[in-house]
């Protein structure tokens, strides 16, 4: 593989390319710098063409010049320092004056003054920083038009930051081109399967640019001010009352929501898997429904029901000072929205617990309660813990609900949003959202590496056909009643949104109207089409990327595989606000000036939904005999062909669910995308928020309903597509 | 229908894995060095874990050798990816594409080679007929029997007209009868196409009945290369002798080494024409006896007395299990119609035909 000839050819091509690259870079840079320089010299020369005499006249002239021309400061000396006996110095800028006085006897300056007597303009190697921008210094002679003699000197401090930025960009592009070209060349020359190598390199480039780099930028900004390392930002964050209370609020809310959700989730999961209540399927469906409900929808109906003008609180109960805004209102909404997460986790765990264990306990004459306490509950404990942690992290990262419903109560996600958009304090915003990452990461990691290892549940592969009834008839009735009440509440929440669509002015005028639809769909038309378009653009990218990454991770061995896995999976644990803030920090400057474009939104969708798709793809590939892909390669298929003709069709269910998941999540995104939208590219959820904020609840309801309909339609289509799968009923093994 | 047959050559091919737990190097294959001649069917035979499948997968391109080179014909293919090697493989688990019909499975390789549709159709039907599946083209592979799936896998490999056919324990998932049938079939097709083939198995009967030559591997190393009868009759060591067939070893002492090896065994001396190299007089040795090299005689006339425990009647022969002071010994009595068969319980004496045996140094003695 590393035959000497190949290495030499490679080295030669590298050398040629680098020479060409360097030459092009140098030529372009030189040309631009020269152009900029000649412009500067021209400006300077023109400015000194007519220097008045008389002190006051010079002073006025200087003021006029600097006012008329924003990008330089000027110091003028009548007479030449070091040559003429008396020299008068004029300057409007103290910095420049001080600089001149301290440096005027240095060899560089003296040489420049001497040059001036020969009517030459000199660029000094010294630079000066005035007002935070570094400036280039030019020594220009002022000539008496009558005699042609040099009568004085102008010291110009020009702002050349634009030129510098251009040079930097050019250098970055030249280096980037070299890196890309050499990587492609090396992969083509020295690897067995260049396409695979390109795919791996591309994935590294993508995740490096859109996961690692923004995070780095966010972290950097929280530690760096004016180019210096400092802990000031963090000191501010950790000592200011407002921020500390936001951290406390987030943790409080997470704690309450996680506990309540786990309780409700366990209630549903236990009843569905361990008792013989009727309508199990219905209750299961109800318990998973809120997973797909768009953001703001539950909050919206809570406000409609229990808000200041709420149907229940004001109209029905006549309460005047009831306040739903704050910790308890938020906990209620989050619990309704997040208990499905706990439910789904717990159903999986409870179903995996072999019912014969409970039979054994009952057989040893334990009561049902004792059996539950000593067998079922201990076995389910790791599952309960991981459900709790999952909800906890979700609650911490939640942005939409607190945004509408937090009132005076502070949480980190909203606080960091307000810092960035309201106060324009990007550093604080970045630090706050990084602070949010800490508990999230701890919870996520302990779930992954500690709780999941403590699990004693063994998957036997053959679920018992019959589950032992663990509840007495009375308990069963109680469980059923509790579930029915919660389900009813959930129903009324969705019903409220529906009702809200048809009411003229909720809380004041409940007349039936269709006007909301007309107005909402008219005002939301652009946002709706943007949202659908962007989500639709991200969907295939995320889906294909996810399946390709899954194939590489599940099937191939390569250097840095663990790192790539980590980079791909990281966005799963990142709160959306952090992603949003880090994206605007990283991509608001060249060479990746993406803020304001559709691209940044699409990339954000694809990157954030990648982890779930990849996990699904890997799980699906693990069920498939690798010999199937090897057989295809053996018959002459290269890696892309194997991917297209074998892997994609075989992981079709995972692929389709990854597609629909990405689409739905992108349609209902809010926490990250709220930072990335622009006048040109808007998002429906943000519009719902805006309508709610301006108390146009009817319009908000219509848009929320629209989103719900789209989400359910997507999942319906996905189900149809997955079911049409004739051959894959049984995999040949 | 076929191009010219080519050879396959391995030059000092070594494959080392790093054990994920102990972090130590594990030699899966050490310095495998052999050539498969054009048109030849060679079997890699050995117990599981001996490196035979790894060797095959290196030829196929699914594993990279740590060192050494592999050639197909004159082309060095050591680092070529699997899809650019002129060979086709039949997998142990078949690896049929579950989302394609039998026809599409077989046509897959041709489609990749951009063959015209009409030509594909003709050749697929021809190949399916060759393996006896002409009627089953439209079935999904999931609805075929094991033997039929095996034939699809074979057809799918053969249709691309590879220079080399690689078979990785292709018959291990089939029942005994079907296995025998497919064995004959594979050999017939391989011979009629004149295709060079490398066949991996741990089943010695399969190896013996199929191969032009057998390569016996043990613990990553090639132990012996030879025709089936060389390996059976003249194994290089006790391992090969034991792996390739039923065998009994009798301990003795070397008396003299000349053109034959004279050994003393239970007080008798005899000269055996086949013996391992490096034997020295007075060295402890063992005499390898196959069941068919042993004879049963009247008590006292052989070198070892015993009693018949069980007789297994096989038609063309009888297998007599004889209990002796050396343990239970299997003696094969060929053509029971022409010979005396001692009844169960009868006292007998065991002797052997020196020409059919071979002398090895005793295990553990210097070698």
User: What's the number of structural domains of chain B?
Assistant: 2
Q: What Rg of chain A, in angstroms, do the CA atoms define?
A: 34 Å
How far apart are the termini of chain B? 51 Å
> Distance between termini of chain A?
35 Å
Strand order of the largest sheet of chain B: 6-7-8-3-9-10
Q: Which architecture of the largest domain in chain A per CATH?
A: Orthogonal Bundle
Domain count of chain A: the total is 3
**SSE pattern of chain B, N- to C-terminal:** EEEHEEEHHHEHEHEEHHEEEEEEEEEE
CATH fold descriptor of the largest domain in chain A: MetI-like fold
* Name of the CATH superfamily of the largest domain in chain A: MetI-like
Please describe the biggest sheet of chain B, giving its number of strands, its sense, and whether it closes into a barrel: 6 strands, mixed
CATH superfamily annotation of the largest domain in chain B: P-loop containing nucleotide triphosphate hydrolases
Structural class of chain A: alpha+beta
Bulk shape of chain B = globular
Structural features, described:
The complex is a heterodimer of chains A (733) and B (367). With 733 residues, chain A is α+β, with helices and mostly antiparallel strands. In chain A, the strands form four sheets. A five-stranded antiparallel β-sheet of chain A has the order 2-1-5-4-3, sandwiched between helices. Chain A is 70% helix and 8% strand. In chain A, helix 23 (598-621) packs antiparallel against helix 26. Chain A has three domains: 48-159, Beta-Lactamase (2-Layer Sandwich); 242-415 and 457-501, MetI-like (MetI-like fold); 522-726, MetI-like fold, CATH 1.10.3720. The longest helix of chain A is centred in the N-terminal third of the chain and has 44 residues, at 4-47. Chain B folds into two domains: 8-238, P-loop containing nucleotide triphosphate hydrolases (Rossmann fold), CATH 3.40.50.300; 249-361, Nucleic acid-binding proteins (OB fold (Dihydrolipoamide Acetyltransferase, E2P), Beta Barrel). Chain B is 23% helix and 35% strand. Chain B has a six-stranded mixed β-sheet, with helices on both faces. Chain B has a five-stranded antiparallel β-sheet with strand order 13-12-11-14-20. In chain B, a hairpin with a 3-residue loop joins strand 11 (248-257) and strand 12 (261-265). In chain B, helix 2 packs across helix 3, helix 2 runs parallel beside helix 4 and helix 3 (117-130) packs across helix 4 (146-158). Chain B starts with 7 loop residues before the first strand and ends in a 6-residue tail after the last strand. The mean pLDDT of chain B is 89. Chain A binds chain B through residues 1, 192-193, 625, 627-638, 641, 645-646, 649-650, 726-733, and chain B through 60-62, 64, 79-84, 87-89, 91-100, 108-109, 112-113, 140-142, 149, 153, 156-157, 160.
